[in-house]
């Protein structure tokens, strides 16, 4: 079986590709600078285990401009993994499901953005919150 990249490796590599950051540049830009050989060790296909939390956060610090890109990229990678595993579905069924997932995620994003903006704009005064919590929770 061919060796594949781990989830975290794929996230970092996709972000590097998206932002046009090479391995040497990545090592220089990280919070704790890494040598080219260390970056290569962390991102090699031959790696037998997932990148640990500290190294992952350090690698991300060298490539991520907006933290929201990390869960987006992870969702993309996980969606591809799911597509590879779903062998009982026809190609048409898979395409239909993925189109529906995309549509639902766009709707959820719009709603959550609306909710975040609404709660930020219309935050009730502290006295009302205290009164409401006392009324509701005793």
* Quaternary organisation: single chain
Overall strand count: 0
Rg is 21 Å
Unreliable runs: none
The number of helical segments is: 7
N→C terminal distance:
61 Å
Mean pLDDT: 86
* Structural class by SSE content: mainly alpha
Largest sheet, strands/sense/barrel: none
Q: Bin the helical content.
A: over 70%
Shape label: flat
The ordered string of helix (H) and strand (E) elements is HHHHHHH
As a percent range, the share of strand residues is under 5%
Description:
The protein has 138 residues and is mainly alpha-helical. Helices cover 70% and strands 0% of the residues. It has seven helices and no strands. It has helices at 7-19, 23-29, 36-43, 53-61, 69-85, 91-121, 126-137. Helix 1 packs across helix 5 and helix 2 (23-29) crosses helix 3 (36-43). The longest helix has 31 residues, at 91-121. The model has no long low-confidence stretch (mean pLDDT 86).
Give short descriptive properties of this protein.
138 residues; mainly alpha
């Amino acid at each position: 079986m061919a060796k594949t990249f781990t989830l975290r490796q794929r996230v970092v590599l996709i972000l590097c590709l998206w932002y046009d950051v090479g391995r040497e540049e990545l090592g220089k830009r990280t919070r704790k600078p890494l040598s080219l050989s260390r970056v290569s060790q962390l991102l090699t296909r031959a790696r037998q285990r997932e990148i640990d939390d500290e190294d992952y956060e350090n690698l991300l610090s060298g490539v991520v401009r907006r933290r929201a890109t990390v869960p987006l990229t992870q969702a993309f990678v996980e969606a591809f993994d799911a597509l590879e595993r779903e062998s009982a579905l026809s190609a048409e069924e898979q395409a239909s499901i993925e189109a529906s997932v995309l549509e639902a995620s766009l709707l959820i994003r719009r709603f959550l953005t609306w909710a975040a903006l609404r709660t930020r704009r219309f935050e009730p005064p502290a006295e009302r919150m205290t009164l409401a919590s006392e009324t509701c929770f005793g």
